[in-house]
Design goal:
The chain has three domains: 69 residues, no CATH class; 286 residues, Alpha-Beta Barrel (TIM Barrel); 77 residues. Helix content is 48%, strand content 9%. It contains 20 helices and nine strands. It has an eight-stranded parallel β-barrel with strand order 1-2-3-4-5-6-7-8, surrounded by six helices. The radius of gyration is 21 Å and the shape is globular. It starts with 8 loop residues before the first helix and ends in an 8-residue tail after the last helix. The protein binds iron/sulfur cluster (2 copies). One iron/sulfur cluster binds next to α16 and α18.
Length: 472
């Protein structure tokens, strides 16, 4: 029985409710009057239910779809301005006891090299990442209680935060590790993590069980209820995601929004981020084996519909996607992207020979961080290395209250400009620096509060003189 407040996975992601939602969406996919009502509600920018958003996703009327895309662009601009937050993944270990059929790290893949970084190797990786200019990392590790116990993850987080190299520092470590206990989430919180991210992969229980035949991850309920345990352990920023291509995208879309509604209903705060990866090629993995692959057009529509359904939730895209696709979805809703990523264990300090690749997936966007930063600015965006909210304790409901009061703008743009300035001073190529200086001068005029603008101008001058780490 569907119940968003239930703590049981099969009740807050109720299969029958999803089927009913899809049937409802099919029945109304060309119902112009209902679609107009839903778009009118979405224009209030307070979000949509999974049913309403599913109707928009199913909609076959070109004119209405066009309105949804326009509204997604408007919400993106209103909530996130021109800012795009930058991050990089850091793979600690690809040892894994699970049997996920879509991932090259699955335990039965005996030909992929297995690696686990030592603390010294982590130092080398972090220095390489700092030398690129990164401030925000997403830690990745397979699930293996022997090779990657929680103590190893905690020690690694400690190592990462402790490294100060030249003007570099990692200021926020987000963590993407397997579902675990409340106690362990508490320890991660104490270690100072930002967001805990866990992809559901698929919300369809039967498919989930087929795709996860072995290992602890095969327990659908334990995995699906992990974000609740993370919240109970004190982590109030959690990230959701599905791997599009494993199941019917409309099913996943409804499940994803039901999960967001569940977090809001139980904890009073929805997900901090939603990631939208698609199945892509990797060692031992052929995306053609999964028959639910989605076209770029559908992918863009999913991004637009998520944007109008959950305006306050950041959306993340990785270098799995090509430059072309990334460009399109940035305007429709994506607010965070990775740049200069390596998806292998130890790939930053030293490039791996292809035949020894330990990568989790093939990267489509191979550009350096500097190239990505320049490209974003050429498109009119402001790449941001901001980590201020987490460091100011603006997490969970405090963060959401600020967003909902529309006060976040008074923090985000100033912080984006100051962190971009740091990047330009310390890491940018001359061409990127020239473009960046122009963007900062233009965007300063968009800080509405004149006092804040003056403070930013002052700090920009201080950054030029060597000071770092200002934030609102
Ligand atoms: S998806 Fe995660 S849990 Fe599954 S095999 Fe890959 S690393 Fe292991
Ligand atoms: S001020 Fe907060 S919400 Fe805005 S970019 Fe920085 S961390 Fe994100």
């Amino acid at each position: 029985m569907y119940n968003p407040k239930s703590k049981k996975a099969e009740e807050f992601i109720d299969h029958q409710e999803i089927l009913d939602t899809l049937a409802y969406a099919d029945a109304h996919k060309d119902d112009a009057a209902l679609i107009d009502q839903i778009i009118a509600k979405a224009r209030l920018k307070k979000g949509l239910s999974h049913r309403e958003a599913s109707v928009l996703l199913a909609c076959t009327l070109d004119e209405k779809n066009h309105e949804v895309y326009e509204l997604a662009r408007e919400i993106k601009r209103d909530f996130y301005g021109d800012r795009i937050v930058m991050f990089a993944p850091l793979y600690l270990s690809n040892y894994c006891v699970n049997g996920c059929l879509y991932c090259p790290y699955h335990a039965k893949n005996h030909h992929i090299p297995r690696k686990k970084l030592t603390q010294d190797e982590i130092r080398a990786e972090v220095i390489a990442l700092q030398d690129m200019g990164h401030k925000r990392l997403a830690l990745e590790a397979g699930e293996d209680p022997v090779h990657n116990p929680l103590e190893y993850i905690l020690e690694s987080i400690h190592t990462i935060y402790s490294i100060q190299h030249k003007n570099g520092s990692i200021r926020r470590v987000n963590v993407n590790i397997a579902a675990t206990t409340v106690e362990n989430y508490r320890k991660l919180k104490e270690a100072g993590i930002g967001t805990y991210i866990l992809f559901q992969e698929t919300y369809h229980k039967e498919s989930y069980e087929h795709l996860h035949p072995t290992g602890p991850k095969s327990n659908y309920a334990y995995h699906t209820e992990a974000h609740d345990r993370a919240m109970e352990g004190g982590i109030d920023d959690v990230g959701l995601g599905v791997l599009f291509g494993l199941e019917l995208y409309r099913y996943e879309f409804a499940g994803l929004l039901m999960h967001a509604e569940h977090l809001e209903a139980v904890f009073g705060v929805g997900p901090h981020t939603i990631s939208v990866p698609r199945v892509c090629p990797a060692d031992d993995i052929d995306p053609g084996e999964f028959d639910n692959g989605i076209s770029d057009e559908i992918f863009e529509k999913i991004v637009a519909c998520i944007r109008v359904a959950v305006p306050y939730t950041g959306m993340i895209i990785s270098t799995r996607e090509s430059q072309k696709v990334r460009e399109k979805v940035l305007e429709l809703g994506i607010s965070q992207i990775s740049g200069g990523s390596r998806t292998s264990v130890g790939g930053y300090a030293e490039e791996e020979p292809e035949e020894e690749s330990s990568a989790q997936f093939d990267v489509s966007d191979h550009r350096s961080l500097d190239e990505v930063v320049k490209w974003l600015m050429d498109l009119g965006y402001v790449p941001s290395f901001c980590t201020a909210c987490y460091r100011e304790g603006r997490t969970g409901d405090r963060f959401m209250q600020l967003c909902k009061a529309e006060q976040i703008h008074n923090c985000c743009l100033p912080n984006a400009l100051m962190t971009l300035k740091e990047y330009l001073e310390d890491y940018a190529s001359p061409a990127t620096k020239a473009t960046g200086e122009r963007i900062i001068a233009e965007q300063l005029q968009n800080i509405p509060n004149l006092r804040a603008r003056a403070v930013v101008e002052q700090h920009l001058a201080e950054i030029e003189q060597g000071q770092r780490d200002f934030r609102f």
